[in-house]
Amino acid sequence: MINIKILSYKRPQRYAVRQTLQAARNELRKTHPGLELSISDVKTLDEMEQYTLVGILPSLVINEKLVCIGRFPKKEEVIGWLQQAIE
To answer: Domain with 62 in it: what CATH number?
Structure first.
């Protein structure tokens, strides 16, 4: 199980990042059929500040490691981060 947190106080941004995560998961399931992701939303500035001071644009935490700050990640990047988490 890979634990993922999407940091953003704006719902549309969290939704967009979640869609990218799901697309990456679907791609990785071809080689890792049992891959499971636990995705949670971090919506408040107080919670986000535990990871980053950037709150306007989304950030992404995988297994408590901040991997993307203040931007929308590409599917290929997410696949790479998830592969690292699998190893």
So the answer is: 3.40.30.10
